[in-house]
Amino acid sequence: MPRPVAQPAVDPAQAATFGRPRGVTGAFDRLYAPDARNGKEAEGVTLAPPPPESLAEAFSRPQDTPGVRLQRPRDDNGSGPGGNGAEPPLWSAPADPWRDPGAGAVLGSPALRTDAADDEDEERPKGALLSLPEVLFGRRVKPVALGLLGVVALLVGALGGLVGWWLADTGDSLTGQATIAEAEGGKERAPGSVSDIAKRVAPAVIKIDVTSGPDQPGVTGSGVMIDPQGYALTNAHVIDPAAKDPKMKISAVFVDGSRGEAKLVASDPKTDLAVIKVSVRNPTVMQIGKSADLAVGDSVLAIGSPQRLANTVTQGIVSALNRPVSAGGDPGEALVTYDAIQTDASINPGNSGGALVDSSGALVGINSSIKTGTSNGEGGSVGLGFAIPSDYAINIAQKLIKDGKVQHAEIGINASSVVADTESGAKVQNVVGGGPAAQAGIAEGDVITKVGDRVVRDSPELTVAVRAHNVGDRVPVQLVRQGRPLTVDVTLGSD
């Protein structure tokens, strides 16, 4: 059985506001139904059955509580609760014929507090912040459970990684992850190293372009700055087009890309040397070394512009010294002959006129020619390069700058190379009449084997042996005439 409901005492003001109107004892007004007023059903009206006893007992007013009827508020004329006038029922027919207890409720305007504006400025208290387990799982989780969950996740990830590694390792044998070893630390460039020498010497080596005008093909070679006034030493065959045609223009390109106009000072085709003067201020000049101090096996660097590739550095050694070399000149011109330094440093077309430097970075030669693997001489380097010794080249350059020309010592014969079982040297083909050889009694058919202290093994070596002396020098010449050795003194003339 439900417990008896304990109801507090009814406030008279509340009862006056919310109580039933006078004369109404139930939930509905039956005054308009005469028969229903006496407890009888009106004719033609079907009344609702009485509620179940359980609901009536649960929701009805206790029997010992006096009923409080819903009344209207008292108005000014005395009607209503507390008034003297009689009040008709709230929904009686005379008072409100349209009032129907079964009609639906009508919503009115919301009730607002008069101090609502004051509540807006009030700061509401902040609630407790949610923890990570509450956000993730919606409830609190023990730390031990979270730790176990993390361990499980790590194990699952490790297992997946091992499976992936195994699949990748046992897959295609041609693909996979390469293990590359990277060098640590900086490069060591000690003083005297190739990189150190190249850095110091490269600004003094220039690229020389000889062209007939802008955007016109021309000749490209190399040169070496030897004087602060702008004088540069190069090969005669590099600037030969400008020597033959004054309209050709010569320009020098430095290592930093700057370009300067150059003029031809003088040229010596017999030694393949020439001097140009570049319009430049405070150029970096080459330190001049002594080629006479070189030995076979010394390290050397060749610097120039092979195949129009400026500032190219190659390394090699001195392969031979005092190697007589004759390079072919233009038709009708004398062969270029000089006593060369042979090197295996890579030299290609365009290196001509460039620098050959020793391990200290000093100039010891001017790169001039190469031996190639082709008959026409148009191939690349095969490790047989030749340079004019610096001692001889600087001497020629000083004479070209001072006098504009060079006089070479001359013996006054034409000779060819000869090799026999008993003798080898330069065989005299003809003797220039009135020349130094004719005055000394040298005749056709003689084989010259030595000039001064220099042994002569072929015709080019005879030329370089004679040019090693000055004009007017009296030099002993050893020769073989009809199988008999003979020595004569020759006063060298000028070419």
What descriptors fit this protein?
single chain; 495 residues; alpha+beta; six-stranded antiparallel β-barrel; six-stranded antiparallel barrel; 11 helices; rod-shaped
Notes on the protein architecture:
With 495 residues, the protein is α+β, with helices and mostly antiparallel strands. The protein has helices at 12-18, 34-37, 53-59, 116-120, 132-137, 143-169, 194-201, 240-244, 390-403, 436-440, 459-467; strands at 205-211, 219-225, 231-234, 249-253, 259-268, 273-278, 299-304, 312-327, 336-343, 355-357, 363-370, 385-389, 409-410, 413-419, 424-431, 447-451, 454-455, 474-481, 484-491, 493-494. Mean pLDDT is 79; it is low at 91-95. Strand 2 and strand 3 (231-234) form a beta hairpin. 20% of the residues lie in helices and 26% in strands.
